[in-house]
């Protein structure tokens, strides 16, 4: 019996999310892909969505080859009908969602007065409205379960201002406020709401050249997600600031 106990303990240490179902928006590439792979490696069943079918299929196949239970769906998370279908089909395929990572995001930079209404709508809808829509769709089942983690991928741009960042910063400052209020609304239901605020990350998100030694990797953000979802049950990490070790 002692041997069985040690084996079970080891399994739970290496696969702490065996009973978890995670939904990652924007999960086909960049940070979302890295998060999906990390959570799958920890034993979670994983649902991902995106709008690039080729990237979505490739990531889903990689996840399946790792042995994970996977559901992928082409969805525009700025539209409530798409969100409802995404959540319903994800839960039908994998079970009730216990981890939601709101990662879908876009960035448009430049002087605010030079941007269009369409630019504003695109950034605010993707970076902020989608978090409202997807969280609203997932929360009822989490309340029924009496537990859950919602992790919103924000940015240090949600804490700091910089030239050319008007629309992007507005979306991330708004996300900070939304997340903090959601945390207060949901903590009594056993649901933990956290934000991760990375600095510059080496993904295709920005076309600006970066020194790889002076920026974060997508895996750095995935590590922070893993840290949050394995936090002890009596506490939660409300906000993580993530910076590269070396300054640019």
Describe this entry's structure for a reader.
It is built from 7 helices and 7 strands, in the order αβαβαβαβαβαβαβ. The protein has a 7-stranded parallel sheet, with helices on both faces. It has helices at 2-14, 30-41, 53-65, 80-94, 117-145, 166-186, 218-229; strands at 21-24, 45-50, 70-74, 99-102, 148-153, 191-198, 239-242. It has one domain: NAD(P)-binding Rossmann-like Domain (Rossmann fold), CATH 3.40.50. Helix 4 (80-94) packs parallel to helix 5 (117-145) and helix 5 packs parallel to helix 6. The termini are far apart. The chain has 248 residues and is α/β, with parallel strands linked by helices. The chain is globular, with a radius of gyration of 18 Å. 46% of the residues lie in helices and 15% in strands.
Total domains, how many?
1
Order of helices and strands: HEHEHEHEHEHEHE
Low-confidence stretches: 1-11
Give the biggest sheet. 7 strands, parallel
């Amino acid at each position: 019996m002692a041997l069985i106990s040690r084996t079970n303990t080891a399994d739970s240490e290496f696969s702490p999310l065996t009973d978890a179902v995670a939904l990652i928006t924007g999960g086909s590439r960049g940070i979302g892909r890295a998060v999906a792979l990390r959570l799958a490696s920890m034993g979670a069943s994983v649902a991902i969505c995106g709008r690039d079918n080729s990237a979505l299929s490739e990531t889903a196949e990689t996840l399946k080859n790792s042995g994970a239970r996977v559901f992928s769906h082409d969805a525009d998370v700025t539209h409530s009908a798409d969100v409802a279908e995404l959540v319903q089909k994800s839960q039908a395929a994998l079970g009730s969602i216990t981890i939601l990572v709101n990662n879908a995001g876009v960035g448009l930079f430049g002087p605010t007065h030079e941007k269009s209404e369409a630019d504003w709508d695109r950034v605010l809808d993707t970076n902020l409205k989608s978090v409202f829509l997807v969280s609203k769709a997932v929360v009822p089942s989490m309340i029924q379960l009496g537990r859950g983690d919602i992790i919103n991928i924000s940015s240090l741009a949600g804490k700091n201002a910089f030239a050319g960042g008007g629309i992007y910063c507005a979306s991330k400052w708004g996300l900070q406020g939304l997340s903090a209020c959601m945390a207060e609304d949901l903590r009594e239901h056993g649901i933990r709401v956290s934000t991760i605020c990375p600095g510059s990350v080496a993904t295709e998100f920005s076309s600006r050249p970066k020194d790889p030694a002076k920026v974060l990797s997508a895996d750095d953000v995935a590590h922070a997600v893993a840290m949050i979802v394995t936090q002890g049950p009596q506490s939660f990490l409300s906000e993580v600031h993530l910076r590269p070790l070396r300054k640019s």
